[in-house]
Amino acid sequence: MAHHKPNLPQKTCARCARPFAWRKKWARDWDNVRHCSAACREGRRPAAEAARKTSAGPLDPIQPGR
User: Fold this and answer.
1) Which one, 6, 17, 22, 52, has least CB within 10 Å?
2) Is residue 62 part of a domain?
3) Distance from first CA to last CA of the chain, Å, rounded?
4) Where is this region: Disordered (predicted)?
5) Residue range 10-19, pLDDT digits in tens
């Protein structure tokens, strides 16, 4: 029998706009949790708005030496 957790609260990540569910390690601080992962919290993932803008517009040319 599979273990399912259908009744966990969910939030939307402030950076990537993906939904994420409650985790036990966030139990004491759930009201203050805003990001789905450390990558989003530290800015390693692009923001949802920036990702949408770049996907709709032209791509920047790759510059040598970068």
Assistant:
1) 6
2) no
3) 52
4) 42-66
5) 999 999 999 9
Cα–Cα distance for residue pair 26/23, rounded to 1 Å: 5
Contact 13, 35 (CB under 8 A): yes
The pLDDT tens digits of the residues spanning 44-66 come to 877 765 555 555 555 556 666 65
For residue 44, the enclosing domain spans 10-50
Structural domains in the chain (count): 1
Nearest Cα to Cα of residue 45 among 22, 65, 17, 16: 16
Determine contact, residues 36/61, Cβ cutoff 8 Å.
no
